[in-house]
Structure formats: structure tokens, C-alpha cells
Amino acid sequence: MLRITDARTGDPVDAVPARRGLTRVEAHVPGYDTSALRVLLVADLLVRALEIGGTPVWALLTGEREQAELHAGAAALGIRPFEDRRDVGPGWGESQVVHVVAEGGAAPDGIRVAVAPVGTPDLPEGADPAEVRLALLTPPRNTPAQLDEAALAEAHGTLGRWRRAVADWARHPSRPVPDKVRGRLRTAWEDDLDVPEVLRVLRWVEESDLPEGARFETYAYADRLLGLELTRDLGSPA
Predict the structure, then answer these.
(1) Where are the domains of the chain?
(2) Three-state DSSP class for 59?
(3) Tens digits of per-residue pLDDT, 51-70?
(4) DSSP assignment, residue 66?
(5) What is the CA radius of gyration of the chain?
(6) Which of 103, 111, 98, 118 is nearest to 44 (CA)?
(7) Average pLDDT over the chain, rounded to whole?
(8) What is the CATH number of domain 151-226?
(9) What b-and-e string marks burial along 116-137, b requiring 16 or more CB atoms within 10 Å of the CB?
(10) Which UniProt keywords apply (predicted)?
């Protein structure tokens, strides 16, 4: 069961109510900048985690301005589309609402997931969107993120290495994700969306002696949450 920390109280709460039904995830941003994109990215992770657990989700964006820029920036980072809040009415069958906001940002009453800002207000020119996504995923969401040269270089190296490894592992017979590894991954993202722990599990798998096919399936499974296109290079020359 996915549990997240309610920024209003500091207490963990169930993201899915006992009476399972539609959960609305609403991202609140005042306008377009990298901090707003990080809010949308965390909302995207929440949507993905809920869907993996079988919960139907309705994703909404509440923005005061620069809606087109927000949607375009989100799409570039692999964030799935959010509907504009002003264009829709109440959700039918809605049983839970989770608001994703910037730290200190205003939101209606209800469960709030707070996201720390990004130190760089603008996306670096020419930066690979997947590398930006990984750089924003790496620190805990309550820690300010950076999109400086060092952070992007680290993301570039990690993403390239993992994609090459996944393409190589895919040439071996498939094996199921080991139960222990699947459990570690699910425990991580169901514990307050602990994405840094998910990344640590993947680093452990990378260096482990698990069969190549099991490592491939593990990375493909985790990428349902991470959205880093880790299987992109399948079929590329060895």
C-alpha cells in the first residue's frame, strides 16, 4: 500500500483509501520554470506508482499562467499529460485527492505532497531531457535539486551505462524479477515515493551476480515508475 507524507501534518497517510476508487492527483504550480517541472515530475511518479498498484488515477494541472509552456516542458521530460483543472468539473466516483505542491505553496485542503525547488530556474540549453529527468529524480523530493554541470554529467554517465547494460542483458534468456528484488523496489516506492532508494536498488542489481535476464526484467519493471526509457537501445549493435 502506497503511503506518503502529508506536508500539512508531517504524518504518513495512505495514498489509496480503504474504499478503492478513483484517486485525483492534482499538481499546483504558479507558472513555468524548472521548479514547476519538478512538481509535475513528482506528480507523474505518484500517478505511475498508483497505477502500478491497480488504482485508477485522474491527473490534473492547476496553473495560473504559461499553461502551454508547462505542458510542452512536461512532455519533453516524459511526463504523461495532465488535464487543465479549469477545463474539467468534479470527478465521478472520486474517493481520494492528493495535491502535489511546491514547498510553501498554497493548495486546497487535503493531502499534500511538498516538493523542494530546483536551484537552476531554466533548463540548460541542449540538455538531454532524459538526463534532466534522472538528475531531478536523484535527490529526495524534499531536498533542493540542481541541474548544474556536475549533476547532468552524472546523469549522462548513469543513463548511458544502464541503457547499454539493458541492451546487452536483453540478448540473454529472460528470467523473472527475483521476489526479493521486486519486494525491495515496491517497498521503496510505496514508502513515500522513495525514488533514491529505487535507484540504489538498481545500482545493486547492476553489480550483482543475478542472471542477465533477471537484471533486464528488473530494470524494465523499475522503469514503469522511473520513465527513463531504459530499454530504448534494445537491438542496437553490441
Answers:
(1) 3-115, 151-226
(2) strand
(3) 999 998 999 998 778 888 99
(4) -
(5) 18
(6) 98
(7) 91
(8) 1.20.120
(9) bbbebeebbeeeeebbbbbbbb
(10) Aminoacyl-tRNA synthetase, Ligase
Beta bridge partners of 26: 60, 99
- Give the CA angle between residues 77, 83, 89 to the nearest 5°: 160
**Which residue's entry shows cell 507523474?**
44
How many other CB atoms are there within 10 angstroms of residue 207's CB atom?
8
Q: 12 pLDDT exceeds 60? A: yes
Partners of 99 in the beta sheet?
26, 112
**Residue 87 CA neighbour count, 13 Å, CB half:** 8
Which three-class secondary structure state does DSSP give residue 217?
helix
**Residue whose grid cell is 523473472:** 176
Non-local CB neighbours of 193 within 8 Å, separated by 6+ positions:
2, 4, 42, 45, 46, 49, 113, 141
With 0.85 as the threshold, say if the pTM is over it. yes
Q: Which three cell numbers stand for residue 31?
A: 507558472
Helix (H) or strand (E) holding 25: strand 22-29
> What end-to-end distance do the CA atoms of the chain give, in Å?
40
- Whole-angstrom Cα distance, residue 224 to residue 96? 23
d(CA 37, CA 26): 14
Whole-angstrom Cα distance, residue 36 to residue 97?
20
Identify the band that residue 92 occupies on the pLDDT scale cut at 50, 70 and 90.
Answer: low
SS3 146: coil
SS3 of residue 191 by DSSP:
strand
Q: Residue length, the chain?
A: 238
